[in-house]
Amino acid sequence: MNEGSLLSGGWLWLAFVLIALATHLPRGSFIVAGSRARLPEQLQRALRYAPAAALAALVFPDMLLVDGAIDPFNAKLVAGAGAFVVALRWRNPWLPFIVGMAIVWLGRA
Amino acid sequence: MNESFRRGAREGFRAFLPLSVGLVPWALVTGVAMRSTGLSVLEALGMNLIVFAGTAQLGTLPLIGAGAPLWLIAVTALVLNLRFVIFSAALAPAFERVPVLQRLLSGYLLVDGVFAIGAERMLASTDRDWRMGFFLAPSIYAWVLWQVFVMCGVLGADALPRDWSLEFMATIALITLLVPIARARPMMLAALVGGVATVVLREMPLRLGMIVGIVLGIAAGFVAERWQSRGEGR
Q1: How distant is the Cα of B44 from the closest Cα of chain A, in angstroms?
Q2: In sequence order, which residues have a C-beta less than 8 Å from that of residue A108 and are 6 or more positions away?
Q3: Cross-chain residue pair A96–B175, CB shorter than 8 Å
Q4: What is the rounded CA–CA span in Å between residue B112 and residue A53?
Q5: Does residue A6 belong to any structural domain of this protein?
Q6: E-strand spans in chain B?
């Protein structure tokens, strides 16, 4: 996918370093600084919603958009919905991948 | 390593073992997704070592693949990792009087699963060595397991055909993360608003639509929570 536009060389490694910083600063924050520092409670409550909003912001465009336009009848949306339902219903960690990818492939056949 | 560290290590490992099975498909998918985005084997293994975060890796791959601006990649990773600020704040009392090198290592190793099984018991224990054993053993085990299976995915990806849309597995992995989140109603609202707003605002310059969408999602969840708790208070 998107072969020509992939970040390359030094930019790519710089991106890795930035992602690593964006990961390890939050992880280490209070463990390293110690528990004397405290996060305001309202902020802590608001932050709990960040992962949900961010995950959906990544997933929705991938399922709803085909070449930049909204297409509610595409195989990836059905596959994503299928994977969601399967993950909701069964605990097997492989099943969402099997079902989701099977639907994507069937949609192209 | 004294006796109570070893006892903590054994108990922590045993508590995490059942949960760790779930890491395997997740790690394989991350490995395959990095390769199908176009990273070389060396780049993929390098990213996995220095980042060591499935969600942040899978979440930024589409952006890396599309050549998105660096700041957007960094902000996206940061937002996906904000939950760790909360985990870190919650665990901090358990790391009091622990040497700073061990605390740095613990920060690098902190993952959702170990926090989920360990936070309560670590905070309840008064034995510092037991706590460190209880945290480090499953964390190091999770790290090894993750590195091994990501490597399997990275090296195995070449054996898989190019035209299988395998990068969609990254999306499926992110969807499975949404499942436990979406069980609470304000969380589901945060996700719906964040996702729909990002799609609607996709024409905004510099992909600002995604950031605006995420902020709207957080706000929606926060407001919904306040309404919900006000309703219960009545």
Answers
A1: 10
A2: A75, B165
A3: yes
A4: 17
A5: yes
A6: none
**A70 bridge partner residues:** A65
Pick from A72, A51, A56: which is nearest to B193 by CA? A56
Q: Looking at the structure, do residues A57 and A106 belong to the same domain, yes or no?
A: yes
Does residue A44 form part of some domain? no
The HSE-up count of residue B61 (CA atoms within 13 Å, CB side) is 33
**8 A C-beta contact, residue A49 and residue B221:** yes
Overall number of domains in chain A: 2
Please give, rounded to a whole number of angstroms, the shortest distance from the CA of B195 to a CA of chain A.
4
Q: Is the ipTM of this complex over 0.85?
A: no
Which among B168, B190, B198 has CB closest to A52? B190
Q: In this structure, is residue A99 part of a structural domain?
A: yes
Q: For the segment A97-108, what is each residue's pLDDT rounded down to a tens digit?
A: 999 999 999 987
* Per-residue pLDDT tens over the stretch B118-150: 888 898 999 999 999 999 999 999 999 999 999
Same domain, yes or no, for A95 and A70?
yes
pLDDT 10s digits, A4-20: 467 778 899 999 999 99
Please give the residue range of the domain that contains residue A15: 1-38
Residues ≥6 apart with Cβ < 8 Å to B183: none
Residues A56 and A31 in one domain: no
Please tell me which residue of chain A has the smallest CA distance to B217: A53
Q: Is A90 on the interface with B (CB under 8 A)?
A: no
A:53-72 residues touching chain B, CB 8 A cutoff: 53-65, 68, 70
Contact A49 B87 (CB under 8 A): no
Q: How many CB atoms lie within 10 A of CB B58?
A: 26
